[in-house]
């Protein structure tokens, strides 16, 4: 008997990062449709799980949602549609919006809370952590976010049990979170390993060239912060030179 489709809702809050969305494709690559497209043998194709993906905004169908790189995404569902109601989805996938666009509208936060209450697996990528935190679902839990945001998250959402700056991926119950943009690949690799047959996981990750790496960062948060501060400082002479030559 064919497996039931994995029902995924992608919550598009403002303009989301295209690279955050890309992590979702690892789930689709584990579907029979994709495995068949790359000419895998039928016994391996049969181990895949179909995907049913919904793209969700407040405005709903017949609208477009923006992503970075000037991409527009066809919206399939509104927050009120029964197909994406709490209990109707297996995964609520939250790619990251720009931090300056936060906090989200209350409708998005309530939608996230309701799915959390229903036990939906919630996956946040990069700054998608801000949506989860503003919704209050990190309260009492171990969570993570992009390293450059961790200090802000600790100050703004102190009710979170721990903002872990040492891990690329955290999981606390139904809440999966990751740090920077491509840590979404690390998170999805972990999700696949936990929920799919090894042959499918290895095929997908091998085809995508997503190589295994430790979920714990190999550099300190302090070192990473110093690196970015140095880039800001070293940009000053170039900025001054540009202003002078523009006159």
From TrEMBL:
The keyword Transmembrane helix does not apply. The keyword Signal applies. Keywords: Signal. It comes from the Eukaryota. Residues 51-193 form the DJ-1/PfpI domain. Pfam families: DJ-1_PfpI. Residues 1-21 form the signal peptide. PANTHER family: ARAC-FAMILY TRANSCRIPTIONAL REGULATOR (PTHR43130), DJ-1_PFPI DOMAIN-CONTAINING PROTEIN (PTHR43130:SF7). This is DJ-1/PfpI domain-containing protein.
